[in-house]
Amino acid sequence: MIAKLRGILDTVGEDFAILDVNGVGYLVHGSRRTLSSLPAVGDAVMLHIETVVREDAITLFAFIDVLERDMFRLLTSVQGVGAKVGLAVLSTLAPNELQNAIAAQDKVAVARTKGVGPKVASRIVLELKDKVTGLVFQPKGVQMPAGSTSGPSENDGDVADAISALVNLGYRATEAHAAVAKAVTDAGEDADVGVLVPAALKLLSKV
After folding, report:
1. Same domain assignment for residues 29 and 49
2. Same domain for 42 and 83
3. Strands, DSSP E only, in the chain?
4. CA 107, CA 128: separation in Å to the nearest integer?
5. Is 56 in the same domain as 77?
6. Which of 16, 17, 108, 157 is the most exposed place for a label (fewest CB within 10 A)?
7. Smallest Cα–Cα separation from 162: which of 186, 204, 192?
8. Within 13 A of 117's CA, how many CA atoms are on the CB side?
9. pTM of structure
10. Are residues 59 and 74 in the same domain?
């Protein structure tokens, strides 16, 4: 199974790229985010690969960083979500935005993806709500460098402090994560812990 490719970028198309690795051209499919992050044709590039093997084809999906690859794996673990839909979602929402939407159970944000209806969006946020907290939580507006494998730790910043405060008050980590993610969306990405905790508590009191 191919997990990573390093070579020279040969071609970039609307939804694919060709990577020349020692004279062998590998056709890989990627999200709009990954393809727009690629260097100029002729330059060296390294991509994380998810290999999907089916009876009639072996398809390679490429990702600029590990976080996007991990979110793709989670998406395609949901019933009714195939690779094409997974890439479409990641072309609409950056990994951190998708993670926040799932944590906040915001099916409307997920349904913004072309071809993803309300039922599929609901299934995505429901089935993945307890899984996204294992990934890097990256508040909206904080961008990861192309090719990086991690973002800000959940131990850093006001968002993490707000989540920790709620957990210390007795809320489950998934509840705290969802409430703080929604509070960030409502209050703005610059909101500090003094704003986020009361806002999150207000949301939790309505549950």
Report:
1. yes
2. no
3. 4-12, 16-21, 24-30, 44-53, 58-63
4. 12
5. no
6. 108
7. 192
8. 2
9. 0.71
10. no
